[in-house]
Design goal:
mainly alpha, two-stranded antiparallel ribbon, two-stranded antiparallel sheet, 4 strands, 58% helix
Length: 313
């Protein structure tokens, strides 16, 4: 029996969370802004699919758009559109051996927070609603298990809980303080829908557990040493740069949506690396310029193969 694409579970879960937030929790956003960022993400996926000559698939873009609508806030609609553009374009343009470097939603939020103080993350405490917390946990657990990445989710939440509880015990704080910090809607979304992204986590189970612990330790440094908010977001963006190294030290099988119920597209050999130098030739190609006018990239020194899918949340 063919498995249902796990991205459909993600879209359904995030859509339900957004609907609940807009109707019952009075999110500090509007239906129009949410629709704008989701539509921009799907539109960006269509543009990039044309530029990179791959089949258009809106599923991963919808996940990125929904995640941004849940977490990102700005008084400027330009920044919301820019966030969607960054999230989608980085999936295509920043890759290593056919694999995404950054989680699209995470890098979009971090990049805009660096660029402007007019962008912030929605307050994580969305109210002590037991039903809402239970809903997020259950839907998140369902999603990560369907995406075969429950190990990194549980490893991170265990490591981050140990960091918070251990710090409070060291300082002599009551345990209600770390427990309150764990009752955080943004943390649950990060744990079950962002760090569990199968296209940006290490390939091996040991590598994913190591990665989760590094993210938790990095978040501790950012939040309690540098005293910056949103430590887990900053830490994930920084630790994502270590994933290629972890994959070399702890190799494992590459995740593909096709093997797990979804569809996949392959990157053509001349364009296996997708950093900035590869972007201009694709724009020229999209403008119907001659392929002979494009620079020739030799693949003689690149023995590895990529069967990558630019479909990460």
């Amino acid at each position: 029996m063919k498995r249902l694409d796990p991205r459909l579970y993600q879209i359904g879960a995030l859509s339900l969370l957004l609907l609940y937030g807009l109707t019952a929790l009075d999110f500090d956003t509007t239906w129009f802004r949410a629709a704008l960022v989701i539509g921009s993400a799907i539109g960006g996926q269509w543009v990039c699919s044309r530029l990179w000559s791959v089949k258009f698939d809106p599923r991963s873009a919808a996940i990125s758009g929904l995640s941004l609508a849940l977490l990102l806030r700005s008084n400027s609609m330009i920044f919301l559109v820019a966030a969607a553009a960054i999230a989608i374009s980085t999936k295509f343009a920043i890759r290593w051996r056919g694999k995404h470097i950054f989680n699209p939603t995470n890098i979009a939020i971090v990049a805009l927070m660096i660029a402007s103080p007019r962008v912030w993350v929605s307050p994580g405490q969305w109210g002590n609603v037991a039903f809402f917390g239970f809903l997020v946990v259950c839907l998140g657990g369902l999603v990560v298990n369907r995406a075969s990445r429950s190990d990194v989710t549980y490893a991170f939440i265990a490591a981050w809980s140990a960091v918070l509880i251990g710090r409070s015990l060291w300082l002599g704080e009551p345990l209600t303080i770390p427990l309150h910090r764990l009752e955080n809607g943004a943390l649950l979304l990060f744990t079950f829908f962002m760090i569990s992204d199968p296209k940006t986590t290490p390939d091996s189970r040991a590598g994913r557990i190591l990665f989760a612990v590094l993210v938790a330790l990095g978040a501790r440094y950012v939040q309690f040493k540098l005293f910056h908010t949103n430590g887990i977001l900053w830490s994930l963006a920084a630790c994502s740069l270590l994933v290629p190294v972890i994959d070399v030290l702890l190799p494992g099988g590459r995740y593909t949506w096709k093997q797990n119920g979804g569809s996949s597209w392959s990157v053509s050999p001349p364009w296996r690396w997708h950093f900035a130098p590869g972007l201009l030739p694709r724009i020229r190609s999209a403008a119907s310029m001659s392929l002979r006018a494009m620079p020739k990239f030799s693949t003689a020194h690149r023995r590895w193969r990529s069967s990558a899918t630019a479909t990460a949340p």
